[in-house]
Amino acid sequence: MKKYLLLFVCLLAITSSCKKKIVQDKVYDNVIYDVGKVPIYQSSADKKRIKTATQFISILYADLFQNAISTQQLNELSILYSAQGDKGITTEMLVSNYMNSASIKMPTNTDMRSNIDKFITDTYVRFYLRNPTSYERYYFKNLIQTDVNITPEFVYTSLALSDEYWYY
Question: Which single residue of 12, 66, 89, 158 has CA 20 to 30 Å from 152?
């Protein structure tokens, strides 16, 4: 009887303990990711963190060209930026180089002058992620209306080189 009991326990242990767990992989086709809206700051005082050089280059590229910079180009520019002593001149050279590109996404001078208020609002949201204050709107509107030499390139350059653009 002990033999049969021992054989029964061994048989029970073998059959119940060695089961292969089957895992099924689900393949999802055509997944769509919803990107949330970017919050707009109430004022420049809400921005307290400074961008790193890599963040600055990446965001500047995205703001000007309306698409992401390649990883290789970002790495090369970040290394080049870190190697330079005078960050102000390096920033100006980078912005100037981007402004000379033919693929930059910028409104024409005619578009800017046809609806100055819309241009100012769109530009502030694009670069600063906030709406312009009434004084900023007045200043830029007056500047664009009185000086025919002001182009969207000048406005974009001035906002990209400002201190506020370095903060988020």
Answer: 89
